[in-house]
Amino acid sequence: MGLTNLIKVLLIEDNLAEARLLHEVLKGATRQEFQLFHEKRLQDALKQLETQTFNIILLDLTLPDSQGLDSLVPITNKNSHIPIVVLTNINDEELALEAVRKGAQDYLVKRHITLDILVRSICYAIERKQMEEKLKEVNQALEKRVEERTTQLLKAQELNQLKSEFVSMLSHDFRNPLNTILLSAGLLEESHDQLPREQQLLYFQMIRNAVQDMNQLLSEVLLLGKADSGKLKPNFNELDLKEFCQQIIHSLHLSFEESSQIILNFDGDFQSNLELWDEKLLWHILHNLLSNALKYSPEGGKIFVDILAEEKSVTFRVKDQGIGISQASQKHLFEPFYRADNVENISGTGLGLSIVRKCVEAYEGNIFVESQLGKGTTFTVILPRQQPLMSKMEKSIEPI
Ligand code: ATP
Ligand code: MG
User: Fold this and answer.
1) How much distance in Å is there from the Cα of 315 to the middle of ligand 1?
2) Which one of 230, 234, 294, 389 is separated from 150 by 20 to 30 angstroms, measured CA to CA?
3) Which residue ranges have their beta carbon within 6 Å of ligand 1?
4) pTM
5) Protein residue whose Cα sits closest to atom 10 of ligand 1
6) Tens of pLDDT along the chain (400 residues)?
7) For domain 6-139, which architecture applies?
8) Cα 114 to Cα 154: distance, rounded to the nearest angstrom
9) Do the strands 237-238 and 66-67 form a parallel or antiparallel pair, or are they unpaired?
């Protein structure tokens, strides 16, 4: 900070005699050199300000093209960093004070101007403006930090809320199978082997299913946790993609007793055993999308699965003719535990799609949904294709 040796002054003053007088006064300065530029009209002064910079502006408040405080605004709008000293007549002091309140650094009564007063006022105005600018910078930096901290705090609060929601949903979803186990085990115990064998088997089966549900829920939550901490990384291995998809569909057909039909169609070039895929991630993606398609379709509904192999990627499209998803719900589909209003009594935890999304992200792929309420839903997943093993090996062998 500090004053430069040469101070460039822009004097905006229509009275030539006053201007000349100020010029003469400034010439007498010894410790500081001043270079005075003079403009008679505000418009001309504004033009000057566009082409060069000044250290200070001396502004007369009565100009031919602008009166009073009206002159301040157009100057400060574009040159807020340049200090302004207002020049005023004896009877104008009230106006000059108002100008200072509106951003001018100082005011001088023309008749009282001496070299000392003028130089001191100019130097003080420049120093004060520089301090003001510095303060403004510090303030802005502080404001920015406060803003950043506030967003961080809000995020932390949001995260905490999400966490507690997650825990309460999870305990709720655990309680159902636990109740089933408790109830079935209690009935078996109290029956003292008096129950018919078939009934006993049924209770055992219910216990087994409940344990399986809990196991699945736990592994899904673990997978989500892993994804959130960035530890879900694909582990590529050779896989026959066609056979793998056929197997998933076959096992789903077995577990869904309803008569829905899955129509599988492959297109493009599949390199049977040389393809590299992460079997686990792919299983989560396809299994969840397909079981949703089956679950949310009416009995006898058709589900079309199209798998298209292209040079760099494979597109998996699962299309159903089921209950559909409203536009509003589509935004939340991938949030853990979210379930749309129209699921009615179809059971589910709302974790499937959030897992699908995490797996797709781990693959660095993309997922899209298109849906119409009551008409059906199509999920499209595009996953990048890994280099076939052979060409990868060939690449890694450097020529000798
Ligand atoms: P689960 O965790 O057992 O999979 P879920 O199926 O309810 O439970 P998601 O698979 O995450 O959970 O799906 C979230 C919600 O998205 C569903 O509850 C349902 O409202 C909607 N949804 C998903 N797929 C379909 C679909 N094919 N047709 C209609 N609605 C769907
Ligand atoms: Mg699901």
Assistant:
1) 21
2) 230
3) 288, 292-293, 296, 320, 322-325, 333, 338-340, 343, 348-354, 377
4) 0.60
5) 352
6) 455 679 999 999 999 999 999 999 999 988 889 999 999 999 999 999 999 999 999 999 889 999 888 999 999 998 989 999 999 887 888 888 899 999 999 999 998 899 999 999 999 999 999 999 999 999 999 999 999 999 999 998 888 887 877 787 788 788 888 999 999 999 999 988 788 999 999 999 999 999 998 998 888 888 888 888 888 899 999 999 999 999 999 888 877 766 788 999 999 988 766 789 999 899 999 999 999 999 999 988 899 999 999 989 999 999 999 999 999 999 999 998 899 999 998 988 898 999 999 999 999 999 999 999 999 999 999 999 986 555 444 444 444 4
7) 3-Layer(aba) Sandwich (3.40)
8) 58
9) unpaired
Domain ranges across the chain? 6-139, 162-228, 237-392
Phi first, then psi, for residue 60 (nearest 5°) are: -80, 140
Q: Is residue 203 within 8 Å of 187, Cβ to Cβ?
A: yes
Cβ burial 238-252 (10 Å sphere, 16+ → b, else e): ebbbeebbeebbeeb
* Atom from ligand 1 closest to the CA of residue 355: 11
Q: How far apart are CA 187 and CA 134, in angstroms?
A: 79
d(CA 289, CA 295): 10
Instruction: Kindly give the distance from the C-alpha atom of residue 69 to the centroid of ligand 1, in angstroms, as a whole number.
Output: 66
Distance CA 62, CA 71 (A): 9
The domain 237-392 belongs to what CATH superfamily?
Histidine kinase-like ATPase, C-terminal domain (3.30.565.10)
- 3 state SS for 266-306: EEECCCHHHCEECHHHHHHHHHHHHHHHHHCCCCCCEEEEE
